[in-house]
């Protein structure tokens, strides 16, 4: 059998995209996945007999349209339906924000509409700028740097959201406190962040909720489509193949080691795992430049959320969705105030379960009734700022139950009577994400989202690692820790793959 | 130079006798402008004064070290000739540690650096390299922070930084470093040289005037700002002999000598705005003072929302003014019967400034708790013993200790009366850890909070975020949306520190504006 030219570690969405790009360019690639099935976080789980839903996230980060089209995902059945609305339930009332501008303008108080639309457009243009910049792969080798956007193509979006706090950003643009809380909840849901601290405005552009959209039938459909595309491109995916090391000889990656024994020799390796998993667990530290392990260690990664999956014996009643069914199809935030979110963050930092976390509910059964047996329903709750490691010891059944109670009491505020309908629950915390997806410390974002480790500062602090190139020749990082994750999906895998192709062409790798 | 307008009208009215206001008055009067200053209180100097907090004990309020004082103003206004004297200069920074294991940061001398290396190993060795790099970056950015770089900055940090980089014509590698500074945290910056948490915490404490905490993104910039102060014409952190009141007195003397009219006990009720241009002020007793320009020592909120009539400021102005700050500083002045017994420190070392913050996280936690109105479990503080160098502040043999506590809630949930008590106890407890037996020497103890000493409150500048405020030019912080109305107090400084530089730059802008007006 021919020798493989490149190995891709991890068959999650990023890895699969990288694999497709490489395979389509004619590189002989092997994909190695530690679990039984490819898909990574794009999975559908049957958590209770007959009840299925996406366990790790309700939505994936947005696929750039270009990538979504060129991959042909829609043809494979991976249809992603954007949330038509998002809802906030708080002490001061309920607010529903629709995705469409027309409906949005009609549904909010007249005096708030102009500023809300202006804010939407600003965020939209920031996201467009981000997508544009994300497609540029620098031609130069490692070590390049230009001050943001002066010579090297379009700039990463910069502006108020790089330095400001979320509260500053919102209070300068929005007069209504309820809308401010709603937009803040949209921005930070699923993550641990204080809206008062500098740099938190960045979360407004990151996909807190506004991702690619929900996949009817769960995200597993999307994972399967990617897998099919990958296999159709010609090469097999090896599952149950945990990579335990990347041997390095003379400063070059020489292949991968499986399960501690079998070695597959390749010219190049692309890791779709996060930064710490790749560099600190798979590579021998002796091969890294002197100060690097220390710097890598300081890259901030921490689990920031927990998920509770509910099996319900009937669809819940949503008072706010009686007039418009669409309101039931998106995220439903339950929050009290920005101060509460800040307190939650403080508790998270201490390693404690917060008293009143921001809870984001979704009822996927409204979008696809087939997820549950006839007449029954599934509901998910994402609890923000739940530490992966608690200061008072491991996650016990009792602590997991506390999460269920927190989620239920929030759900009760948004949809009265729902607690009586619960048939079964399934709790996922940081350690579960870590075990299932191999993400360091259960961090699904590939690293804390802060100005000093986002965009051109991804993976950490300096621009020298852009496009996935690392100090080890032939080792590329295309996972959640590389730019532009977690803003966009698939792009860091694609960029790393393109960088690898460029290096193959210029002869650096052969 | 001739100033336009009739001789009955003033060229400039200055509201409030802050250090910046007094500096502006002195500069304008020297340029032969007709200038008048109104101070609402009975004393000049605003927040900065020497406070008699116990019988025969006096302590410096707010400026227990004058680290940011504008060296150029001191020199050009000949403040030394008017009585300004420094009791000590180049005050050493000592990070307090448990059981006498302090870290004393050396001055530039090789011997002192070697001594640090001897007791702190590789971290001590790295200090020299760190200091050189911080000073180098500070020197690069100094034009931005000493008021010479005049460029109305773009409205946000990232763009402003790009403008700065272009204007400074920095090399590519330097541009990279500067850009990075506005993104990374002080801790991340210090991480490159040091391992020891206590050592890093002591150095990172100095970011507090910006309102950022050491782990917050962007806090590396205020750290470098601090180094830019050390390199200005003042020799490091200085202690003013006689306390801040002596500085005020020197400024008042200089301004009066140059011909400025200074009035205490007269407060301004409102600013007169005609066609989006200032026309003068109306005093609370009803008297109308006409003037071309108005300079305000108050912060952006108090000036534009408090003094400018709502009818003239309706052009979306109100929305753009940042909300009040959630954080504040407080100060505790302690009268002692003997020198504070800091473990492991010789009497001659007591003239340093001490930072009690063993971990950088203390500041972050305090800030997090204070943002929601709570009182932090641990406090970080900076203490000095002004009586070591300036014995006139206390009876012979007795001492004054001044402790500055940042990251406190501006509106505590428990109310200031309770917080005051907690603060007094917590400060003495914290100090007791490093100076066992200190509590037995306490004669009196006064807590200065925003309730009883307005200057503690953080000033609201025209820039909502600390990063944008730091990377804006002086001109952008001084000018307001109303023509002829300038800010010259702390709100116009890059961080919340008393410097007087904004007063000097504002006076320059008034002068330039008047020349353009005259030629037009």
Helix content of chain A: 25-40%
Through-space gap between termini of chain B: 15 Å
Question: Strand portion of chain A, in percent?
Answer: 15-25%
CATH C-level name of the largest domain in chain B: Alpha Beta
The CATH class name of one domain in chain A reads Alpha Beta
Radius of gyration based on Cα positions of chain A: 22 Å
**What is the end-to-end distance of chain A?**
19 Å
Question: Widest sheet of chain A: strand order?
Answer: 6-5-15-16-17-14-18
Helix content of chain B: 25-40%
Assembly form of the protein: heterodimer
Number of domains in the coordinates of chain B? 3
From the helix content, strand content and strand pairing of chain B, which structural class follows? Answer: alpha/beta
Q: Which stretches of chain A are low in confidence, meaning pLDDT under 50 for 5 or more residues running?
A: 139-152
Average the pLDDT over all residues of chain A and give the rounded result: 86
Total strands of chain A? 19
CATH homology-level superfamily of one domain in chain A? FAD/NAD(P)-binding domain
What would your notes on this structure say?
The complex is a heterodimer of chains A (510) and B (520). Chain A has helices spanning 13-24, 65-71, 101-107, 113-134, 160-163, 166-171, 177-188, 220-232, 275-282, 292-297, 338-350, 364-367, 397-414, 430-437, 491-506, and strands spanning 6-9, 29-32, 45-48, 51-53, 85-90, 93-98, 237-238, 243-245, 248-249, 252-253, 255-258, 262-265, 268-271, 305-312, 332-334, 359-362, 377-384, 422-428, 475-477. Chain A is α/β, with parallel strands linked by helices and 510 residues long. In chain A, strand 1 (6-9), helix 1 and strand 2 form a beta-alpha-beta unit. In chain A, helix 1 (13-24) packs parallel to helix 8 (220-232), helix 1 packs parallel to helix 15 (491-506) and helix 3 (101-107) packs antiparallel against helix 4 (113-134). The model of chain B is unreliable at 152-157 (pLDDT under 50). Chain B has 16 helices and 18 strands. In chain B, the strands form 4 sheets. In chain B, strands 1, 2, 9, 10, 11, 12 and 18 form a 7-stranded mixed sheet that branches. In chain B, strands 7-6-14-15-16-13-17 form a 7-stranded mixed sheet, sandwiched between helices. The A-B interface holds A 145-148, 150, 158-160, 162-165, 168, 171-172, 175, 194, 196-199, 295, 298, 339, 342-343, 345-346, 349, 450-452, 457, 461-463 and B 155-159, 162, 165, 172-173, 175-176, 179-180, 182-185, 188, 191, 212-213, 216-219, 319-320, 322-323, 326, 364-365, 367-369, 371-373, 464-468.
């Amino acid at each position: 059998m021919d020798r493989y030219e490149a190995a891709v570690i991890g068959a999650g969405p990023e890895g699969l995209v990288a694999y497709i790009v490489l395979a389509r360019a004619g590189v002989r690639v092997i994909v190695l996945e530690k679990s039984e099935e490819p898909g990574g976080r794009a999975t559908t789980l049957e958590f209770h007999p007959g009840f299925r839903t996406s366990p790790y996230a309700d939505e994936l980060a947005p696929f750039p349209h270009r990538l979504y089209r060129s991959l042909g995902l829609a043809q494979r059945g991976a249809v992603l339906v954007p949330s038509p609305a998002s809802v906030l339930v708080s002490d001061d009332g309920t607010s529903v924000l629709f995705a469409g501008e027309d409906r949005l303008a009609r549904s909010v108080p007249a005096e708030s509409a102009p500023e809300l639309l202006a804010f939407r457009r600003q965020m939209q243009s920031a996201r467009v700028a981000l997508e544009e910049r994300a497609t540029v792969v620098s031609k130069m080798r490692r070590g390049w740097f230009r001050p943001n956007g002066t010579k090297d193509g379009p700039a990463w979006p910069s502006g108020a959201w790089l330095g400001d706090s979320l509260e500053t950003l919102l209070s300068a643009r929005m007069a209504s406190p309820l809308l401010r809380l709603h937009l803040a909840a949209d921005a930070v849901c699923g993550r641990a962040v204080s809206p008062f601290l500098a740099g938190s405005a960045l979360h407004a552009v990151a996909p807190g909720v506004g991702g690619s959209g929900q996949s009817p039938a769960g995200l597993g459909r999307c994972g399967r489509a990617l897998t099919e595309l990958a296999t159709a491109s010609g090469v097999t995916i090896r599952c149950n193949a945990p990579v335990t090391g990347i041997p390095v000889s003379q400063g070059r990656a020489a292949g991968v080691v499986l399960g501690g024994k079998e070695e597959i020799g390749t010219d190049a390796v692309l890791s779709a795992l996060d930064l710490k998993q790749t560099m600190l667990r798979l590579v021998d530290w002796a091969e890294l430049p002197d100060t690097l392990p220390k710097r890598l260690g300081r890259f901030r990664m921490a689990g920031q959320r927990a998920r509770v999956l509910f099996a319900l014996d009937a669809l819940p009643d949503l008072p706010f969705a009686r007039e418009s069914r669409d309101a039931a199809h998106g995220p439903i935030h339950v929050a009290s105030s920005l101060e509460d979110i800040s307190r939650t963050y403080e508790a998270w930092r201490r390693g404690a379960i917060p008293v009143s976390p921001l809870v984001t509910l979704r009822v996927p059964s409204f979008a696809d009734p087939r997820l549950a047996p006839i007449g029954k329903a599934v509901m998910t709750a994402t609890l923000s700022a739940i530490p992966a490691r608690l200061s008072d010891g491991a996650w016990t059944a009792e602590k997991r139950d506390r999460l269920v109670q927190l989620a239920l009491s929030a759900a009760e505020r948004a949809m009265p009577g729902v607690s009586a309908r619960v048939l079964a629950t399934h709790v996922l915390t940081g350690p579960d994400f870590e075990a299932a997806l191999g993400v360091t410390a259960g961090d699904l974002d590939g690293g804390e989202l802060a100005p000093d480790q986002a965009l051109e500062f991804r993976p950490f602090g300096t621009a020298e690692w852009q496009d996935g190139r690392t100090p080890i020749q032939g080792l590329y990082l295309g996972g959640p820790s590389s730019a532009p994750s977690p803003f966009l999906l698939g792009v860091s895998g694609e960029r790393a793959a393109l960088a690898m192709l460029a290096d193959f062409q210029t002869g650096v790798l052969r | 130079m001739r100033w336009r307008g009739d001789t009955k009208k003033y060229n400039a009215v200055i509201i409030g006798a802050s250090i910046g206001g007094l500096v502006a008055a002195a500069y304008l009067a020297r340029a032969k402008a007709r200038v008048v200053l109104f101070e609402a209180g009975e004393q000049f100097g605003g927040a900065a004064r020497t406070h008699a907090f116990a019988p025969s004990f006096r302590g410096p309020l707010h400026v227990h070290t004058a680290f940011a004082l504008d060296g150029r103003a001191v020199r050009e206004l000949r403040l030394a000739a008017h009585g300004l004297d420094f009791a000590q200069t180049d005050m050493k920074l000592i990070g307090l540690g448990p059981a006498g294991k302090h870290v004393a940061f050396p001055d530039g001398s090789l011997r002192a650096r070697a001594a640090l290396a001897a007791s702190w190993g590789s971290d001590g060795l790295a200090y020299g390299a760190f200091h050189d790099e911080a000073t180098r970056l500070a020197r690069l950015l100094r034009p931005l922070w000493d008021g010479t770089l005049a460029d109305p900055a773009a409205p946000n940090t990232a763009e402003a930084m790009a403008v700065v980089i272009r204007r400074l014509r920095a090399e590519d590698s330097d541009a990279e470093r500067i850009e990075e500074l506005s993104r990374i945290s002080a801790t991340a910056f210090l991480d490159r040289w040091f391992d020891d948490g206590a050592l890093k915490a002591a150095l990172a404490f100095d970011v507090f005037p910006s309102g950022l905490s050491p782990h917050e993104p962007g806090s590396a910039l205020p750290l470098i700002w601090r180094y830019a102060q050390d390199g200005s014409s003042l020799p490091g952190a200085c202690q003013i002999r006689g306390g801040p009141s002596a500085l005020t007195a020197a400024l008042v003397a200089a301004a009066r000598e140059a011909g400025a009219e200074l009035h205490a006990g007269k407060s301004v009720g409102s600013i007169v705005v005609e066609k989006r241009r200032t026309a003068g002020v109306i005093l609370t007793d009803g008297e109308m003072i006409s003037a071309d320009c108005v300079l305000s020592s108050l912060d952006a909120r108090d000036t534009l929302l408090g003094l400018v009539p709502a009818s003239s400021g309706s052009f979306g102005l109100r929305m753009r003014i940042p909300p009040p700050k959630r954080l504040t500083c407080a100060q505790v002045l302690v009268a002692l019967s003997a020198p504070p017994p800091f473990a492991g420190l010789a009497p001659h070392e007591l003239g340093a400034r001490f930072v009690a913050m063993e971990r950088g996280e203390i500041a972050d936690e305090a800030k997090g708790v204070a943002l929601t109105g709570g009182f932090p479990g641990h406090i970080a503080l900076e203490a000095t013993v002004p009586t070591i160098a300036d014995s006139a502040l206390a009876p012979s043999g007795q001492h004054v200790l001044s402790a500055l506590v940042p990251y406190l809630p501006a509106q505590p949930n428990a109310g200031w009366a309770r917080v005051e008590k907690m603060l007094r106890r917590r400060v003495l407890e914290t100090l007791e850890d490093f100076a066992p037996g200190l509590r037995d020497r306490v004669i009196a103890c006064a807590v200065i909070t925003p309730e009883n000493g307005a200057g503690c409150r953080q000033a609201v500048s025209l820039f909502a975020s600390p990063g944008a405020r730091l990377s804006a030019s002086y001109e952008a912080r001084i000018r307001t949306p109303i023509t002829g109305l300038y800010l010259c107090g702390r709100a116009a400084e890059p961080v919340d520190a008393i410097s007087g530089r904004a007063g000097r730059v504002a006076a320059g802008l008034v002068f330039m504006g008047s020349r353009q007006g005259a030629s037009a």
